[in-house]
Amino acid sequence: MKPRDPSVEEMTLLSERLDALEKELCFRIETASQGEQELRRLRAELREMRNSLSWRVTAPLRRLSKLGRKLLRARPDT
């Protein structure tokens, strides 16, 4: 049995569907690209902050705070 040729209407519908899918894919790629750019920017900002003097100066306080929280969690209830 020979397959039938698609009609003009079917071809038009398929073409429109492909166009819609292409637009949606382009939008998703653009959105992902913007998300990656934002992530790179935030990582650079975090690196900059961690290299700052204030971050290094307050490091011992952050460690003490972390240790204190850990000790309080480990303390048995009385």
Please characterize this protein's 3D structure:
By secondary structure, the chain is mostly helical. It has one domain (9-74). Helices cover 82% and strands 0% of the residues. The protein contains 3 helices and no strands. It has helices at 8-50, 53-57, 59-74. The mean pLDDT is 89.
Short description:
Helices cover about 80% and strands about 0% of the residues.
Task: Describe how the helices and strands are arranged.
Elements: H1 8-50, H2 53-57, H3 59-74
What's the total helix number?
3
How many beta strands in the DSSP annotation? Answer: 0
Secondary-structure element series: HHH
**What proportion of the residues form beta strands (DSSP E)?**
under 5%
Secondary-structure content class: mainly alpha
The average pLDDT value, as a whole number, equals: 89
Q: What distance separates the N and C termini?
A: 85 Å
Q: Work out the radius of gyration.
A: 29 Å
